[in-house]
């Protein structure tokens, strides 16, 4: 039997504003309300971004602490809270790693190309990945193209991640990517030996739900990637895409994972 389908909710991201969707959560209280909605719908991981005073992307530790506390107060341990370490052109790899070390979150997403841009960065990155393992912080490695995937597999075999089967997020249907690129990434996903999730942008998000459910993968959905339904109307809320995930799981006989399932699957 396949593992239950893990639904990661990415409700805000680094760039979108309330002018894009009025339900985009930015403040801790808004994120807490969002957490209640996505838990009720079936999400098990919250992919968390925080913003500065101008509603721009931030990796500020205190802002993270405030948002995490609000979410925990609202839903307790019913979500695995995964912070982002995304650079968005503002943060260096050293800053990204230092923020994670200061915060010590339950989980973190890491773009391999940002944390380890070249072989010259490999020693420092490997030490950081080992530290994550020691501190029992749950990483997910983001891979954007086949070169990222090639490097990931090379590093995995060499033990760089201190984990034989680290969790990955494959970005399929990336903005600006052609169909051939999406097909290549989908083929890579189906042949991954590590547990994987996928995400897509805009209209690419919805078909990826069925793709993940059908191929023993997992899925990330949310306003970070897409704010429209299949009729190109604004999603009514964060639960609408999670409902689609539930329907796709039902068709394949998979259940939707809860946070405890995630913790059990990955021995957190």
Mean pLDDT: 94
Secondary structure class reads alpha/beta
* The CATH fourth-level homologous superfamily: Aldolase class I
The Rg value, from CA coordinates, equals: 17 Å
* Percent in helix: 40-55%
Low-confidence stretches: none
Give the number of helices.
Answer: 10
Going across the biggest sheet, name each strand in turn.
Answer: 1-2-5-6-7-8-9-10
Determine and state the CATH class.
Answer: Alpha Beta
Number of domains: 1
User: Largest sheet, described in full?
Assistant: 8 strands, parallel, barrel
Order of SSEs, N→C? EHEEEHEHEHHEHEHEHEHH
Strand content: 5-15%
Number of strands: 10
Shape: globular
CATH topology: TIM Barrel
**Terminal CA distance:** 21 Å
Annotated CATH architecture? Alpha-Beta Barrel
Can you offer a commentary on this structure?
The chain has 268 residues and is an alpha/beta fold. It has one domain: Aldolase class I (TIM Barrel, Alpha-Beta Barrel), CATH 3.20.20. It contains ten helices and ten strands. The protein has an eight-stranded parallel barrel with strand order 1-2-5-6-7-8-9-10, surrounded by six helices. A two-stranded antiparallel ribbon has the order 3-4. Helix 8 links the parallel strand 9 and strand 10. Helix 1 crosses helix 2, helix 1 packs parallel to helix 9 and helix 8 runs parallel beside helix 9. The longest helix has 15 residues. The protein starts with 6 loop residues before the first strand and ends with a helix. 41% of the residues are buried.
